[in-house]
Automatic annotation (TrEMBL):
<feature type="transmembrane region" description="Helical">
    <location>
        <begin position="229"/>
        <end position="249"/>
    </location>
</feature>
<dbReference type="InterPro" id="IPR029071">
    <property type="entry name" value="Ubiquitin-like_domsf"/>
</dbReference>
<keyword id="KW-0472">Membrane</keyword>
<keyword id="KW-0560">Oxidoreductase</keyword>
<protein>
    <recommendedName>
        <fullName>very-long-chain enoyl-CoA reductase</fullName>
        <ecNumber>1.3.1.93</ecNumber>
    </recommendedName>
</protein>
<dbReference type="InterPro" id="IPR000626">
    <property type="entry name" value="Ubiquitin-like_dom"/>
</dbReference>
<comment type="similarity">
    <text>Belongs to the steroid 5-alpha reductase family.</text>
</comment>
<keyword id="KW-1133">Transmembrane helix</keyword>
<feature type="transmembrane region" description="Helical">
    <location>
        <begin position="153"/>
        <end position="173"/>
    </location>
</feature>
<keyword id="KW-0444">Lipid biosynthesis</keyword>
<feature type="transmembrane region" description="Helical">
    <location>
        <begin position="189"/>
        <end position="208"/>
    </location>
</feature>
<keyword id="KW-0812">Transmembrane</keyword>
<feature type="domain" description="Ubiquitin-like">
    <location>
        <begin position="1"/>
        <end position="74"/>
    </location>
</feature>
<dbReference type="GO" id="GO:0042761">
    <property type="term" value="P:very long-chain fatty acid biosynthetic process"/>
</dbReference>
<keyword id="KW-0256">Endoplasmic reticulum</keyword>
<dbReference type="Pfam" id="PF00240">
    <property type="entry name" value="ubiquitin"/>
</dbReference>
<feature type="transmembrane region" description="Helical">
    <location>
        <begin position="85"/>
        <end position="104"/>
    </location>
</feature>
């Protein structure tokens, strides 16, 4: 059948155009045909709609009652970047900035001093956290959306590069927390409690990411009810354990910069968790009623 593709903006010189496509074709196949016609618009850059209804890649055109001679509206989403690359760039910032502030203290702070024990422990905790995040990004996560607008990478990265990178590193590794200062040491039991909490939270967070990965077979967008460790209490235990890990860092370091980072992070994760929690209830009629969104028994 013949389908007319028109630009939603009406300003593109490439549209309208007509394509031939089998009547049982999927939206994804239509995007591929459109890409061959106009090489600039690769599939992830396209948004196709009927009226205001967006067309989902995996569905067939006939499921939207699209017939020969119909018109589909096109919107250019702009240059895209993979979510995997976005995550990688986000987390690489702190992994670069923290070693710079930790090892080049004389050049940055204008004096030489010996890092306190808390500074050293916190440095390795933070580095371990973001190395774990990079490993998960490269080898664990499966993304429901393959790409996002490339321009958004600057906004997404700012939270990590500025708050958990530049701001946190500067205040955490300065001479005011060095050996011999009041904030340079903690009681032994307290240090080990914070470390134990951090390790527990990181292992638990990793476990929930494995559970989420196994919910979606490779190359699919299948959605299922997550079950197992953590998920029986909240819809997003990965967020809860992330928060718990950073609370242990905040407690150990007494760093207001760390508190600022996780406070902003908690607000964003809370919004994401509420949205996911509501979507689970809409999508699955048998979704467990006793689960909270992000904090067990509370939120």
């Amino acid at each position: 059948m013949k389908i007319t593709i028109s630009s939603r903006s009406g300003k593109s010189k490439s549209f309208p155009l007509t394509v031939d496509i089998p009547s049982d074709a999927t939206v994804e196949q239509l995007k591929e045909v459109l890409h061959k016609k106009v090489r600039k618009y690769y599939p992830t850059r396209q948004r196709l709609t009927i009226g205001q209804q967006p067309l989902q890649d995996e569905k067939k055109l006939k499921e939207y009652d699209i017939k020969d001679g119909d018109t589909i509206l096109f919107k250019d989403l702009g240059p895209q970047i993979s979510w995997r690359m976005v995550f990688f760039v986000e987390y690489i910032g702190p992994l670069i900035l923290h070693p710079i502030f930790y090892y080049f203290k004389k050049q940055i702070y204008g004096e030489d001093f010996e890092h306190g024990r808390i500074q050293t422990i916190a440095y390795y905790m933070i580095m371990a956290h973001f190395i774990k995040r990079e490993v998960e990004t490269l080898f664990i996560h499966r993304f429901s959306h393959s790409t996002m607008p490339a321009r958004n990478i600057f906004k997404n990265s700012a939270h990590y590069h500025l708050l958990s990178g530049l701001n946190l590193a500067y205040w955490l590794y300065g001479p005011w927390n060095a050996v011999g200062t009041p904030d340079g040491e903690r009681e032994e039991w307290f240090i080990w409690t914070c470390l134990a909490t951090f390790v527990y939270a990181q292992i638990s967070n990793f476990s929930t990411h494995i559970t989420l990965r196994n919910l979606r077979p490779p190359g699919t967008k299948i959605r299922r009810i997550p079950r197992g460790y953590g998920f029986e209490l909240v819809s997003c235990p990965n967020y809860f354990f992330e928060i718990l890990a950073w609370i242990s860092i905040c407690a150990l370091t007494k760093s207001l910069a760390a508190v600022l980072f996780i406070s902003v992070g908690f607000y964003q994760m809370y919004l994401w968790a509420i949205k996911k929690h509501k979507n689970y209830y809409k999508e699955f009629k048998d979704y467990p009623k006793n689960r909270k969104a992000i904090i067990p028994f509370l939120l």
